[in-house]
Amino acid sequence: MTCSRTIVIVIAFLGSSALQAHEVTAPISIESFPLDEVSPHIRVVHGPLAQPSPENRGFMNNPAAILTANGIIVVDPGSSRNTGRQLVEKVRRIWNKPVVAIFNTHVHGDHWLGNDGVRELYPNVPIYAHERMIERANAGEGEFWINVFKTMTKGTAGETKAVAPTIGLKGGEEIRIDDVTLKIHYAGHAHSDNDLMIEVLNDRSLFTGDIVLNHHVPNSDVPQDASFKGSITAIEAMLKGPYSLYVPGHGRTGGREVPEAMLRFHRKLYDLVMKFYRDGQQDYEMKDRIVNEMSEYRDWHNFSEMGRVIGYVYREIEKDDF
Ligand SMILES: [Zn+2]
Ligand SMILES: [Zn+2]
To answer: What distance in angstroms lies between residue 49's CA and the mean position of ligand 2's atoms?
Structure first.
């Protein structure tokens, strides 16, 4: 009797927590997502495709770790101190080694504000990024992003301070850490003016930053920072590399099909805007037709932002025309 009552209570408890885990409005964090093994050395937490909100506490990117013989290299530890700390705790559950380096792919806050949480645990760990990112971070861009996340999450992202990278890179460097060799690539102004791509030579893999997203309209969050033509050039360049695995800034990791899909999207969008521009149309006149022509991508995240993205492609083409 006592025994069966205990079982009923346990089942009721499990039932209610399972319901909570699937409750759409329940607050989520990096803790709710698995640490995916995508290659021998690389682990990725594939974050949700979403805008920062009180429910997701601003967690929306793909924080990752590269495991070396004696340590952990963190890539893009998310948008808050909490996310950065939780990423390290999560990785250390499977790889109980110290964090030996952090890499940031670019200056947008969803990728690097988590430096604060990693540095809380490892105060002296070096942080690598493009030198232009360091310039922008030191000019106060961190505070701008902290405010964006604070406002959009209504404070659920928690307290964070901007911890800027410490070691500037230009692209072309080869960095060996223990048994892992990283090659740094820079393909010019693309998603932003400071995108680094990180190749893990051992695994023939590439962290693309936000130059490549999976199932996500490109440059839709911060189109004012992007060169759309430069994004096409950068993706073409990475497709010539020896990689069999691409870790995008948002969305699932995959093979060549991930950057190839992004390249098709970019080329189609750019060509359409160019065609209507040459016909003498203004951006507001071409928007509806282009959105319609691009409807094969309507299930991509942020498709509702296409109008704004078209406006920015238009302005770039107009500027290049002068
Ligand atoms: Zn970005
Ligand atoms: Zn991003």
So the answer is: 10
